[in-house]
Design brief:
Number of domains: 2
Order of helices and strands: HEEHHHH
Structural class: mainly alpha
Number of helices: 5
Radius of gyration: 20 Å
Distance between the termini: 17 Å
Strand order of the largest sheet: 1-2
Largest sheet: 2 strands, antiparallel
Helix content: 55-70%
């Protein structure tokens, strides 16, 4: 499985001219892509990790409003529920 937006970003950062990628791993090269760049793209594809910890964390954190509410009640009650909530997510969804 491929994360199309993440792979496209990886290829673009490597200076490989692409229009984009599919979730099946097809790379849509621009006309100016050289054979060497296409070979390099296949190496990047082979090492590609589709996991996006930032996206997973963003979903787990929930809304800013709910986090602010947690912080408010922590400050009011002298608790650390928000800090514990964030710590648990960071431990469960590590940076890779």
């Amino acid at each position: 499985m491929v994360n199309p937006s993440k792979l496209t970003e990886e290829l673009t950062k490597a200076g490989i001219p692409v229009h984009g990628c599919s979730s099946e791993g097809r790379i849509d090269f621009k006309e100016e892509a050289t054979e060497a760049q296409k070979a390099q793209a296949l190496e990047i594809l082979a090492k590609h990790n589709p996991y996006d910890y930032q996206e997973a964390r963003r979903e787990a954190y929930g809304s800013v409003e709910s986090q602010l509410d947690m912080i408010y009640w922590d400050m009011t009650n002298g608790t650390f529920k928000w800090r514990d909530f964030i710590t648990e997510i960071k431990e469960r969804i590590p940076k890779i």
